[in-house]
Amino acid sequence: MRELRRKCSLCGKEAVVYIPYQRRYYCKEHFIEFLVNKVRSTIKRYKLIRSRDKVLVALSGGKDSAVLLDILLKLSSYFNFKLAAVHIDLGIGNFSDESREIVKEQTKRLGVNLVIVAVNEILGIDLTELSRKARRPPCSTCGLVKRYLLNLVALTSGASKLALGHNADDIMAYSFKSFLTQDLRYISKLGAFTESIERLAVGRIRPLYEVYEFETKLYARLLDIPVVKSRCPHFRPNQMEIELKKIINDIEQERPGMKLSFLRKFMRNLKEYPEIKGRIVPCKYCGMISSTGECSFCRITRKVFGKPMGSKVKEYMNKLLKDKILWYS
Ligand code: SF4
Ligand code: ZN
Ligand code: ZN
User: Fold this and answer.
1) How far is the CA of 31 from the centre of ligand 2 (A)?
2) Could you tell me whether strands 24-26 and 17-19 are parallel, antiparallel, or unpaired per DSSP bridges?
3) Distance 295 CA to ligand 3 centre (A)
4) 188 exposed, middle or buried (CB, 10 Å; 0-12, 13-18, 19+)?
5) What pTM, to 2 d.p., does this model score?
6) Which ligand 1 atom sits closest to the C-alpha of 139?
7) Residue nearest to atom 6 of ligand 1 (CA)
8) What is the pLDDT of residue 185?
9) Mean local confidence (pLDDT), 7-23
10) Which of the four pLDDT bands, split at 50, 70 and 90, describes residue 4?
11) So what's the pLDDT on residue 102?
12) What are the residue ranges spanned by the domains of the chain?
């Protein structure tokens, strides 16, 4: 990112940023307008949202999901969809406490309804304890639990789309990593959306698919969007992803627009990559999506508690969301 004392290419005010792949300088107002328009085009290009959709945004407390919520709210009347947000409180000490407060602030500022689901409340133990008892690494347990709970909240609340905050740099680093490790089955999951599966899974969308990481950072800074400062104690930097992002950014610097061109071609070619095959059947315990008749959440909780907890969590969710049928606004 270059920040120079130059004039905005559109209005002549002082510029805050230069966008190399457009060869344009933007002032604060025009950069914000540019980014909102970029997301609008992405939504249209990949048909991510339809009129009357109910879009549930997964908020982590970080900048990407916060920027996603802000931009989607600005586009909600244009596309005629409703919006709500969800946060999974993992119960990981100060980090989770801070994240919880930040997402409350983010949604309050925008007037968007928020539902918080606390792992501690539904299981009686936090994420760290769950992963220790399940003898699984915290981040893989966390991914499993979050996927299950987000899908459950989306299904229970009647959402038609679940919006995630992955940006262009994330997608490129994941796809290059899949290629380098030859784990090609993972690549088919890296598109801008997944389809819904009736009663089992709500389709996921990635409206920031073509938004560069520096653009979300700048957007959050210019609009003073509150974001979580502390880091999860389980966080371990993935060296390969960091290196790949660096290499990709070096190439982008030499060839501005390379990321956009890659992602668009990648979406066109996505069907060429092998899909994760397997049956899709409801879990016999909780009725949620599974490939073996027992979902991963029921399997892990059965290991830890001696019985699968999916149906109990479903009951909890029904109660939690019962009086919130109209919480999409
Ligand atoms: Fe979850 Fe790992 Fe991220 Fe912590 S670092 S929030 S455990 S995925
Ligand atoms: Zn301007
Ligand atoms: Zn289950």
Assistant:
1) 8
2) antiparallel
3) 4
4) middle
5) 0.95
6) 2
7) 232
8) 81
9) 96
10) low
11) 98
12) 45-277
